[in-house]
Predict the structure.
Amino acid sequence: MTESVRGDTSPEQRVTEWDGDHARTGAADGDLPGVDPAELGDEDLIREVQRLHRTRLDTLRHATDSALANHLRRTAELETEYLARHPGREVDPHRLRDA
């Protein structure tokens, strides 16, 4: 259901806040599942991002709010780490739109 129907916030709004560079949550570092993305090698980081993207729709449609919130948090952490490592990543010209 949407926020206007339920009267509360989405799992993403409840869990993840951006500090400008990284996803933050209110939990202590040791309370969150998953390896710190900064500790992953490049191949492991890409593999984890791919795994999350493969499960995205199923998680969105069928997971509990807490599972969805964890999925959103973990995706934000991993993608933020990827972008930090590859700030000048190559952009495919076929993905650009005419302005």
Observations:
- Residues 82 and 88 are 11 Å apart (CA to CA).
- The two ends are 35 Å apart (CA to CA).
- The longest strand covers residues 17-18.
